[in-house]
Design goal:
The chain is an alpha+beta fold. It is 22% helix and 29% strand. It has two domains: 6-152, D-amino Acid Aminotransferase, Chain A, domain 1 (2-Layer Sandwich), CATH 3.30.470.10; 163-324, D-amino Acid Aminotransferase, Chain A, domain 2 (Alpha-Beta Barrel). The strands form two sheets. Strands 1, 2, 3, 4, 5, 6, 7, 8 and 18 form a nine-stranded antiparallel sheet that branches. The longest helix has 16 residues, at 185-200. The radius of gyration is 20 Å and the shape is globular. The structure holds pyridoxal-5'-phosphate (PLP).
Amino acid sequence: MENLDWKNLPFGYQKTDYNVRCYYRNNAWGELEVSSSEYINIHMAATALHYGQEAFEGLKAYRGVDGKIRLFRWEENYERLKNSARGVMMAEVTKEVFYNAVVKAVKLNERFIPPHGTGASLYIRPFLFGSGAEVGVKPAEEYMFVVFVTPVGPYFKEGFKPVKIAIEKETDRAAPLGTGNIKVGGNYAASLKAIVRVHKEGYGSPLYLDAKEKRYIDEIGAANFFGIKDNTYVTPKSESILPSITNKSIVQLAEHLGMKVERRPIDVEELSTFEEVGACGTAAVISPIGEICDLTENKSITFCKDGKPGAMSTKIYETLVGIQYGEVEDPFQWTEVID
Ligand SMILES: Cc1ncc(COP(=O)(O)O)c(C=O)c1O
C-alpha cells in the first residue's frame, strides 16, 4: 500500500503506476495497452485539440469495509460515454473495452486505493478523443480511449458540511439544444469563467440557470441540484444538464426511504421554500448547501441555519455512501466487486 496521507487527500491529480489505452483505427478498436507514462503523444492536427472532439467520464472504486474493491454503477458511465460520443460524432467505445480498461486500471493501481474508513476513494477517469488529423471541420477517423485513476479525497474541502453557492447570471454553461446533456470537454471550458469568478468571491461553485430564460435552475458546478420539502425530493428537469448517475441513484433511494420524488423545472424563486438543498455527483457525493447568493442583486438565502446538514440529506448521504463502501445492504445491485 502506498504511503499517503489518506485522510487529507485533495480532490486532485496524484500520479499512479499505470494507465490503460486503446486505439480506434481502420474502423475497429485494437487491444488494450498498459502504459506507465503520464503523457500522450498526439498529432498536432488531432480533432480533439481544435474542434473539441473529446468526452470523459468520472466514476470511483471504493475499498469496502470487507476489504473488497467495489465499482459503483459503471454501466451507467459506459452508457453516458456512448451518448457523449454520439453527440460529438466520435467512434463509440465498446462495453467490453470500457469495462476491461476500467478494471485493469483499478487493479494495476491497487496500492493507490484508499483504505476503508478514510473517506477517500479511487477516482477513475475514462476519456475518449479524436486523435486523427483533420484540418476541415469534420469528425476524425481515429480515436483514442484512455483510463487513468487517481486517489481522491472530498471534492469540496469542507466534506459533508454546508457549502456556499453563487447564482451565475453572466455566462451560460450550455445551450438548450447544445451539448449540456453530454459530458464533453467544451462544456467545462464554457464553465471556467464562472467558476473562477465565484471562487474569487469566496463561493464553492456557480449555480447555473437555464440559458433561455435565466429563470430555472440547471445545475451546480459539476453536480446536479436537488431541493427537499414536505418529504419530497425535487430535482430539475432540463435538456441542458448532465444526467447525473448519483442523482438517478438518489431518486431511487429517496423513494426507497419513503419520500416522494419530483423531476420538474425549478424556478429560482422557489429556492427559499426548500427545507434542504444540495448538490450531488460522483465527486461531490452529496454536498449540502448552506447559502445561495445572487451576486448581481446582493441577496442571499441561507439554509442549514444551525450549520449542520439537514436530516433528509444526511440520511440519503449515509445510505448512499454505506452502499458504496459495502457497509449497508445494496438492494439495487449498484455495486460490483472486482477481484
Ligand atoms: C456538469 C455535471 N453535472 C453533474 C455531474 C454529476 O454526475 P455524476 O453523478 O454521474 O457524477 C457531473 C459529474 O460528472 C458534471 O460534470
